[in-house]
Amino acid sequence: MNFELDRAQKQIQKAVKDFIKGEFDRETIEGLLFEHQFPESIWKKAGDLGLLGMQYPEDLSGQGLGLIETVLVAEALCRGDSSVGICLSRAALGAELLLHYGDPAQKKKWLPLLAESRILSCAAIAEPGVGNDITRCRTTARKEGQDWVIEGIKTFVINAGPMAGFYLVLCRTDSDAKDSQNVFTILLVETDRAGIETSDMGPRIGAWLLPVKQVHFNRVRVPEKNVLGKVNNGFKQITAYMSESQISAAAQCVGVALGAFDRAQKWVRQREQFGQKLVHFQITRQKLSDMATRIESARTLTYQAAWFHDTGHGKPGRSAMVKLLAAKTAVSVCDEAIQLLGGYGYIQEYEVERFFRDAKFLEAFDGNSITLKETIAEELAKGKTL
Q: Are residues 165 and 143 in contact, defined by beta-carbon separation less than 8 angstroms?
């Protein structure tokens, strides 16, 4: 097995690094954070450079690449800045569903708009009081003539709002089916349809630049052509999508961990105490060694999971493992970075406290630790090898 990135992948890494150097202006980002505003200008420039929608076909404004390339970009962006990186990495959230299950007309209409940074997309899955058990989702879609009529509430909908082009809504479409896995359908709902209302989720600990809202669907009508894939096949589609999105989320976690590590390492190489640089104290060196080892472990497993996915050997248990490890790594490394900076670690100017808060956001989304462990345990209980 070759663990070396190829020439094209290294060029992608360099392109992202150059983009970060040119566009991640510290003063601009601080202004965005103060206003809690999505980094629209940076997002549009990322689209112009081809950093978004890399997995889409070339005739749909993509580059026809794999998940491993998407992972490399997400990691680098979040390393450059956790808050902006998360926004750019999640600008086309849920579009994997469209890529894999949409019909040619749906793909042709929407994927270029995402790749070119003209709209955001949303996966409307979670609901109030349901948690991570999507089999309990209550949003319904009933057939009335040639249309589906949607009623329900979705929560924690990332990218919801005026910049979004569509919602991919998980709906209960067959209340009589005995198997809960055969009662859901995913419907593509354009954001300008009548009956859609959004409300803000309120202040949160991290990811301040990312729109996260609750979306109400009040008898929203969509035509039959808006069904994504097959009717009553939504559960299987969401399960496959989550497996893929967890790998991308893991890459974001690795990037955030690397960003915090970079800032902590720079600090200890410059800061003096008792007549010598902090980096020369054994306790500091031990901490840095431990942080670097944890990051490299999560990074390697993330790359491996992406490679398995691209070669058709992805498994839910492996995706859950990598997200679990990477999220824990991000939180622990960011926490350690704060400790290395001492009192300055709590000051916004030095950024590591924000990286920590963004790491906590990543830990909670795309499956929390309890859900991920259950996914792993379910495969182990069936005697499956990972």
A: no
